[in-house]
């Protein structure tokens, strides 16, 4: 375990081949995506947003969904940047292969491009951390078998993959041993773009800013030029993303769940502060003076952030109504905390959090064994591993970042142990290698799920399909209508059909979510009246939907319970007879002149 030299330049072709094989194997899962089926609600809504953009129905700065008929007007908070890449692929291919096939190809190519990008960044980061070739390959393999892969599969076109790619690109720039203008420019550009893509990237963006600042505090004058360019790039990139990314500079953007005015101004002030410090005092005499200067710049930036919108320091879901929080948000998979994940499925929780914790330990071991020139770089790795793991304990969505950095740390450690085994051979070295591979890889943390009995609820195991192209084909063939759906069927209805939905799982539309919860858990006698006030003319029902089962369990005498038991009111009339029905969803007309 003595050699910690980076792999030779010639090894890049081995890594490229390894990455291409990994991308190719993942691409084999593209069958259903090419047919029009995407992975989840956000992916379907993202593709519909792209359609609206290409058709001209919605401009660049308008990301509201016109077929989501909520009291809030279908308000969304999404960036247009992911749309740009998807729309470009569709625009280029649709004259050749048709719109639907072009969408399927785009929904396959875009995640594959991000996967290749991320694997490349993992390899670069590992090289700059002093990994051997075997360590680089191990890290790439660990990434490709971790939870991070879920957001890089064909059909995953939402923003999560792009956010991770930008995070790792910024991290690779931070680790650059050359410390040139290019690394400063790349790092400075990644930070505002990360925030614009999704505000969930805020912790990683803050750590990148802190990383470039700490590098100057520790190294002094040799980092001054890079810090100066990093600060200037922050200012310019923050302005460009604020003006040109949706929802754009439409007055005061006093929002906390997206890249808003408070984030924008804080980046301007912070970036300007770093530029001024690196220009006026590039070789401040002591690290204490440099720390004091950076602290002042950070405090001023934080003060402006608080002065503009202090509420952004609190819970990003603070505006969600209490009944929506308990009835919907608590059941959103990626928004669960560690305790909820362990209650739902302990073996999956071991995988999510065990591998993240293993990454922290691997990063710590590598830091303790670091030569002088790599101590700061490996300190940054440990910091990001700790950040990802800590945030994942609060919200599972951060497990993607946690696993990505754990893959880097695990690959780094595995490479050293593999080299030690090659040099020494013997049973002891082999045993150490096996143990490290088991504990530092995602596969090792999946073993409990294979060896232990299932712990998740198995009460609703019927194999129903209500969200695919085939399942909704008959519903899609009907003339345009306004449909009342469960929350989780709103996005599939909008994506697969020409119809209008009354609710979908997006937290800005809290009144629509509250209305849906109220109707499904309320009495049958009031359901029709409340639906009539919403403007719905039809109801879409899916047997076996977990959401409906949860409503029925919560309110045994409610409307959802009646639907689940088949005790239908006479004012719900199936639009297609049971003999002629295809697929699992059932579309009912709401008849308003029946008792």
Your description of this structure?
- This is AcrB/AcrD/AcrF family protein.
- Keywords: Membrane, Transmembrane, Transmembrane helix.
- This protein has a 5-stranded mixed β-sheet.
- The chain is an all-alpha fold.
- The chain is built from 25 helices and 5 strands.
- Helix 1 runs antiparallel to helix 5 and helix 10 packs antiparallel against helix 11.
Shape: globular
Looking across the biggest beta sheet, what order are the strands in?
2-1-3-5-4
Mean pLDDT: 91
Q: Give the N-terminus to C-terminus distance in angstroms.
A: 80 Å
Helix proportion range: 55-70%
Largest sheet: 5 strands, mixed
SSE blueprint:
Blueprint: H1 12-27, H2 31-34, H3 41-55, H4 81-97, H5 99-128, H6 133-144, H7 160-174, H8 181-197, H9 202-219, H10 224-244, H11 261-280, H12 287-309, H13 322-327, H14 338-344, H15 346-368, H16 375-394, H17 399-424, H18 426-440, H19 442-451, H20 473-477, E1 482-484, H21 490-496, E2 500-501, H22 510-521, H23 524-534, E3 538-541, H24 546-554, H25 559-565, E4 572-574, E5 586-590
Parallel strand pairs: 1-2, 1-3
Antiparallel strand pairs: 3-5, 4-5
Helix pairs in contact: 1-5, 1-6, 3-4, 3-21, 4-5, 5-6, 5-7, 5-17, 6-17, 7-8, 7-9, 8-9, 8-10, 9-12, 9-16, 10-11, 11-12, 14-15, 15-16, 15-17, 15-19, 16-17, 17-18, 18-19, 24-25
């Amino acid at each position: 375990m003595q050699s910690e030299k980076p792999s030779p330049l010639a090894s890049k072709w081995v890594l490229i081949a390894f990455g291409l094989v990994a991308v190719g194997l993942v691409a084999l899962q593209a069958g259903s995506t090419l047919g029009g089926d995407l992975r989840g609600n956000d992916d379907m809504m993202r593709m519909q947003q792209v359609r609206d953009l290409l058709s001209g129905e919605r401009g660049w700065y308008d990301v509201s969904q016109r077929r989501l008929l909520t009291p809030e007007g279908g308000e969304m908070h999404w960036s247009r940047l992911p749309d740009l890449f998807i729309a470009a692929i569709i625009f280029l291919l649709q004259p050749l292969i048709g719109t639907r096939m072009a969408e399927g190809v785009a929904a396959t190519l875009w995640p594959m491009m991000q996967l290749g990008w991320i694997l490349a960044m993992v390899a670069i980061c590992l090289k700059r951390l002093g990994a051997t070739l075997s360590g680089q390959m191990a890290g790439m393999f660990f990434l490709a078998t971790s939870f991070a892969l879920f957001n890089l599969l064909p059909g995953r076109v939402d923003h999560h993959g792009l956010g991770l790619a930008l995070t790792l690109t910024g991290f690779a720039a931070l680790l650059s041993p050359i410390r040139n203008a290019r690394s400063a420019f790349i790092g400075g550009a990644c930070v505002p773009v990360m925030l614009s893509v999704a505000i969930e990237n805020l912790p990683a963006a803050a750590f990148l800013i802190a990383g470039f600042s700490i590098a100057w505090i520790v190294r002094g004058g040799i980092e001054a030029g890079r810090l100066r360019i990093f600060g200037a790039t922050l200012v310019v990139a923050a302005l460009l993303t604020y003006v040109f990314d949706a929802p754009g500079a439409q007055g005061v953007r006093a929002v906390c769940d997206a890249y808003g005015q408070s984030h924008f101004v804080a980046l301007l002030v912070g970036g300007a502060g770093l530029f001024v410090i690196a220009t006026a005092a590039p070789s401040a005499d002591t690290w204490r003076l440099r720390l004091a200067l950076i602290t002042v710049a950070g405090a001023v930036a934080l003060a402006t952030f608080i002065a503009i919108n202090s509420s952004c320091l609190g819970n990003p879901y603070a505006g969600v109504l209490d009944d929506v929080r308990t009835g919907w948000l608590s059941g959103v998979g990626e928004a669960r905390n560690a305790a909820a994940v362990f209650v739902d499925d302990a073996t999956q929780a071991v995988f999510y959090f065990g591998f993240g914790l293993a990454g922290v330990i691997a990063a710590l071991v590598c830091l303790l064994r670091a030569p002088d020139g790599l101590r700061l770089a490996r300190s940054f790795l440990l910091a990001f591993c700790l950040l990802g793991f800590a945030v994942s304990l609060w919200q599972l969505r951060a497990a993607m970042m946690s696993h990505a950095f754990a893959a880097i740390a695990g690959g780094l450690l595995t490479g050293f142990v593999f080299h030690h085994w090659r040099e020494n051979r013997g049973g002891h070295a082999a045993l150490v290698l096996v143990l490290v591979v088991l504990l530092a890889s995602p596969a090792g943390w999946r073993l409990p799920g294979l060896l232990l009995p299932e712990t998740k609820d198995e009460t609703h195991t019927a194999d129903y399909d209500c969200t695919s192209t085939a399942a909704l084909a008959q519903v899609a063939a009907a003339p345009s209508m306004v449909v009342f759906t469960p929350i989780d069927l709103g996005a599939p209805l909008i994506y697969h059909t020409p119809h209008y939905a009354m609710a979908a799982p997006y937290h800005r539309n809290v009144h629509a979510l509250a209305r849906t919860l109220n109707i499904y858990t309320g009495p049958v006698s009031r359901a029709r009246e409340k639906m009539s006030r919403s403007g719905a003319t039809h109801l879409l029902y899916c047997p076996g939907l977990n959401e409906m089962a949860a409503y029925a369990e919560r309110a045994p005498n409610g409307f959802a319970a009646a639907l689940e038991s088949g005790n239908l009111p006479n004012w719900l009339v199936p639009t297609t007879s049971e003999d002629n029905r295809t697929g699992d969803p059932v579309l009912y007309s709401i008849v308003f002149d029946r008792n």
